[in-house]
Amino acid sequence: MARAPLVTAFVRPPSHLIPMTIPIEHIRNFSIIAHIDHGKSTLADRLLQSTRAVSDREAREQLLDSMDLERERGITIKASAVTVEHVHLGETYMLNFIDTPGHVDFTYEVSRALTACEGAVLVVDATQGVEAQTVANAYLAIEQDLEIIPVVNKLDLPGAQPEEVALEIEHVLGIDATDCIFCSAKTGEGIVELLDAICEKLPPPRAQVTERTRALIFDSIYDDYRGVVVFVRVFDGRLSVGDKIRMMGVGRTFTVTELGKHRPQREKVKSLGAGETGYLVAAIKTLKDVRVGDTITIDHSPAEKPLPGYEEPKQMVFCDFYPSSGGGEGGKGAEFETLRDAVERLSLNDASFTFVPVHSDALGFGFRCGFLGLLHMEIVQERLEREGGVEIVQTAPTVSYQVLKTNGDVVEVTNPADLPDVVEIDELREPIVKVELVVPMESIGDIMSLCGDRRGIYKSQQFVSETRQILTYEMPLAEIIYDFYDKLKSITRGYGTMDYELTGFHADRLVKLDILVNGVAVEALCLIAHRDNAEKRGRAILQKLRTAIPRHQFEVPLQVAIGGKIIARETIKAMRKNVTAKCYGGDVSRKRKLLEKQKKGKKRMKNIGSVEVPQEAFLAVLEQGE
After folding, report:
1. d(CA 359, CA 349)
2. Residue 272 lies inside a defined structural domain of this protein
3. CA neighbours closer than 13 Å in the CB half-sphere of residue 320
4. 84: closest CA among 108, 114, 48, 134?
5. CATH number reported for the structural domain that contains residue 612 in this entry
6. Which CATH number do you get for residue 406?
7. N or C: which end of the chain has fewer CB within 10 A?
8. Is residue 184 part of a domain?
9. Which of 201, 234, 258 is the last residue of a domain?
10. CATH code of the domain in which 361 resides
């Protein structure tokens, strides 16, 4: 296949030649989707430059990634919507595109973006080929019946194999290899051809179903000065400044004070017509008044039916956040209030994580938070520490379980300490995920062994190319949230990728492990494990505690219990004082008398003494990932 010539300069017509209103037939709404690190953000940068939305002086890498965290990690965390114009065959087209995240944890952001579009640009790295999230994102677009333009990116790299990757796309996704556009987002090669293909191949917005206004909310952020900024896609009718709008889902009404588009700088407009995307400001004070997926209509002339929305995001991973520094009681309380402010502020910009207050004897007051995945959890913690200015202690991540009680009720439990009594439990069900692994041929045996060790059930195997295959397994989510991804990368020397989706809950031989210190259960350390692995995990925790808890004047037993049965024990030996040191002679009965007196004192201390698990010991247990 012939490659397009290198493009070093782009031409955009003067602004006075661009019509003020563009017909709906010349509007294109699309998302840029890909596996992580395949060049989505760089491609978005080049599209902005090629359409002269930004000058060469204003251009910088990852222009649409607004957070420092996104730039440092080189990933996109939050989708960004931009409007640009492109002239094709003498006609001006309005292109509304959304740069989406590529990591599996942020699939919810991708699905929301695709709902606001009619097409998608699927980017594949010419050196890496089709990977796990490439397949997942392509299926998301296909499920929503979107037109897909495949793009093979990074032609400038020495190891690029564009023709082979195009054949991979055809083999795995069923998209004709001849439809692939070869480009380099870094050098600009093929960008003009891609813009022309977007204008030619992607469909315009559908015709209006009703004249009454209906606009879909696909994202929102919180601004300290303007309140909640709502990102909308208008499907029917028109939104104008001064309109009194109604959120059809929550039933609240507001007056529009500002409408605009990101080009990528904010540019105010007087109205948004059918097929257009933009942002809306209406003095909305709290994100609870806005629900992503809700429909906006005009209050005095409302639409009869709302637009199809989104499913609520399903939190997959849970852990507790506590403030790390303390001092006195007042200091600890102040730290908790700082953490509360930081969590509430972050929730205004990220509605996909949840939080509820909790209390731990070891760590004090904190919040139990739910996340879409491990990377999401890591990102939220780092944002809280940076933006909220608070240091956080994080407990070990857990997953959500379903409990079928003996009376027939089904309850969901995210904290092992909240499990009902054993006699009330009929079944304990754990979340099961379908895992797709794209791995090199030489690593298949080791990967299958890894999945087998994690209670994985083999489902299928598919050839991607002569060097790679897709393995499909069903596995418990709890088995992959700790170090499965790290081991996958280690075994495949960095070339393996994975994607997973929740398929349901399945009952298994699951038990609750109680950790007892001096006969008292420590709720913050209890966990749910498979019966076959329970003793191994329990002993590992006890060995950590034995070295982390300071010795006392009396012997301290450490135990692991399942129900009322002790399955493992370690002992912290008592500190001994040499009470016979002052006996320099005389009858041996004097020494025996002193030793008996000491023995009675230790027995009394053991009966009335208490053992507190220090925060350092608690953290030592969490660090091992058990």
Report:
1. 26
2. yes
3. 24
4. 48
5. 3.30.70
6. 3.30.70.240
7. N
8. yes
9. 201
10. 3.30.70.870
pTM, to two decimals = 0.71
Q: Is-cis flag, bond preceding 420, omega within 30? A: no
Please report, as a single letter, which amino acid is at residue 499.
D
Please state, in angstroms and rounded to a whole number, the distance separating the CA atoms of residues 572 and 568.
Answer: 14
DSSP per position, 267-320? EEESEEETT-EEEEE-----GGG--TT-EEEESSS--SSPPP--PPP---EEEE
Report how far apart, in Å, the C-alpha atoms of 100 and of each of 35, 79, 181, 279 are. 10, 4, 20, 17
Same domain, 333 and 190: no
461 and 389 housed in the same domain: no
Q: Report which residue type is found at 618.
A: F
pLDDT at 347: 77
Show the tokens assigned to 103.
């990591």
Q: What is the pLDDT of residue 11?
A: 39
Listed in sequence order, the residues at least 6 apart from 350 whose beta carbon sits closer than 8 Å to its beta carbon are 78, 380
Query: Could you tell me if 567 and 502 lie in one domain?
Result: no
CA atoms within 13 A of residue 467's CA, in its CB half-sphere: 10
The tens digit of pLDDT for each residue in 289-328 reads 787 778 899 998 888 888 876 666 677 788 888 887 643 3
Asked if residue 145 is part of any domain, the answer here is yes
Q: Of 396, 411, 443, which marks where a domain is finished?
A: 396
Nearest to 538 by CA among 521, 555, 561, 556: 561
Q: How many Å is the Cα radius of gyration of the chain?
A: 30
User: Which residue, 492, 438, 500, 498, is CA-closest to 475?
Assistant: 500
pLDDT of 616 reads 62
| CATH number for the domain harbouring residue 287 | 2.40.30.10
Strand ranges (DSSP E) for 109-213?
A: 119-125, 147-153, 181-182
Task: Please tell me the distance from the alpha carbon of residue 319 to that of residue 415, in angstroms, as a whole number.
Answer: 8
Range of the domain at 268: 214-298
How far is CA 622 from its chain centroid?
A: 21
> What's the confidence (pLDDT) of residue 70?
45
* Among the listed residues 241, 233, 216, 231, the one whose alpha carbon sits nearest the alpha carbon of residue 274: 233
Which residue, among 572, 570, 561, has the nearest Cα to 609 in the 3D structure? 572
Phi, psi of 12 (to 5 degrees): -125, 135
The predicted pLDDT at position 457 comes to: 92
Question: Nearest Cα to 4, choosing from 180, 202, 203, 200?
Answer: 180
Which amino acid, 442?
E
Please state, in angstroms and rounded to a whole number, the distance separating the CA atoms of residues 203 and 149: 12
pLDDT for the residue numbered 150: 94
Residues 415 and 471 in one domain: yes
**178 and 55 belong to one structural domain:** yes
Considering the domain architecture, whether residues 190 and 121 belong to the same structural domain is answered as: yes
CATH number for the domain harbouring residue 122? 3.40.50.300
The alpha carbon of 374 is separated from its chain's Cα centroid by a whole number of angstroms, namely 6
Residue 4, in any domain of the structure: no
Q: Total domain count for the chain?
A: 5
